[in-house]
Amino acid sequence: MQLSFLNLASNNLSGKVPDCWARWPYIVGVNLGNNHFTRILQTSMSSLPLLEMLNLRNNSFSGNLPSFLKNGSSLVSLDLGENQFSGMIPSWVGQSLSNLKILVLRSNKFSGPIPHQICNMSVLQILDLAHNELTGYVPKCVNHLSAMLVINNSLESYIYFPVSGGQLLVEPLLLKERVYDYSSNLGLITSIDFSNNELSGEIPTELTGLKRLHFLNLSNNHFIGQIPQNIGNMESLETMDFSRNHLTGTQIQSFEASSFVGNYDLYGPPLNNSCSSNSSSNKEEVHHVKGINWFFVSMAFGFIVGFWAVVGPLLYSSSWRYAYFQFIDRMWYKLQYRCYW
């Protein structure tokens, strides 16, 4: 049987993926998403020369990125999101998967830096590495992602599969924690999502050269410095999120305030804080926090000293204990006598 597309998505399948791919050498698309698979073997899937789409999203796969993908030179869409993959993103992703237009690795446990070889993926339109444990800087070569550079509505930018009536069976895009269904015109969308990682350093100015980029999300990282001044050159940018970083300076007024919240050194519209009020409030907050800390320290120290000044002698001196209890008895009799009369 010349099977061209296998769609087992959204079932209740579990266990390991069987090694039977050699029976279907003409298969173009495989969708195993939204199941409970736990193990994918280093199998004959590497011998599928025509495979263009692989969707393993929302399973329980773990371990390093499967090495059989090195032979996936025909892959156009790869979605491994919402699994338990770990380790570093290997450099061969940008070398062996040069025809990818969609790369989704979100919600895994990948660590280490973003390999600069990803910049070699000249036709890449959707790059989603959100919700991992990635560290280091955003590669400055990001402006080599040619498909995001020039505004182009030609047929070459469309993502099309010669199966299932030409429909692309992929999960809807998740942008700024909102779900968007672009399945009908996905080829016109470009997106970079590095949110919820441990990335640091300054936002590279090379990002602003991506004039065809529609969605950019760098929120919940550790970026510092100012927002690149020429970010206004990104003509196609519809949504941008730089929130919850450590950015300074002024923000871009043409975007909503939620794109910048959590950057306490940013000021000006659309946020309601100014440069002077922001800096003074930060100083007051720091001073207040320090005062509260010293107050509790001194209170605890005073309690400890007072407690042992009274209780210590009673524990270690029998004469002090005798005198203390005699004093308590005398006071008790006096109180009783007064209450009686």
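(ticket continues) Second input and output from the same batch:
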Amino acid sequence: MKGILYYNCNRSGKYQIKGQERKRAIKSQGSCKVGHMCTSQIIVVKNGNDIYQVTYYSTHYGHDTEVQHVRMTKDEREKIASKLAEGVTNSKILDSSRSQFHENSLTRLNLLTRNDINNIKYSFKINTQKTIPHRRASISDLWNDEWEVDENQQILMLKRQGEEHHQLEKDDFCLIFMNCSQQHMLKKFGSIQP
């Protein structure tokens, strides 16, 4: 069987509205389509008997490599999905991707957004809701679990309703936390009152 396949640059062509009327606004970075055909193209010709001839035109015309229009690679998406499956929080993944920025080497991963993470969760069918067995999870439980992993933040005291405490009532709830900068300020300016 003979045939020809054309693979054009994903920036080629004009933005086309699907359907009669657009209900949502266009993305803030605009469409990735440049309004004309880019010269970069791959042409695959199958001559029969599993013989393929590939012609690759690598030069792009009419657009630059703009990071906001670059898609994440399959490997990048899989790495993020594996972190999510391990229970790493969205915030940690975002912080990690943004902290890997080096001068003159901005990548698509440095521009990762919560929406990107949610799309990855959806496409990999990852459910990251935390649950605590035999009890409804409270905000303080989930917060405590997340903060236990982070050495820059400390929960100094967590007293849940129904727990006994020598200074608080049984129905009282108390959460006292501190981050590193607050701890530094307390050590520098705080004093112990008799």
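Agent notes: The longest strand covers residues 41-48. The mean pLDDT is 79. Closing as not reproducible unless the customer responds.
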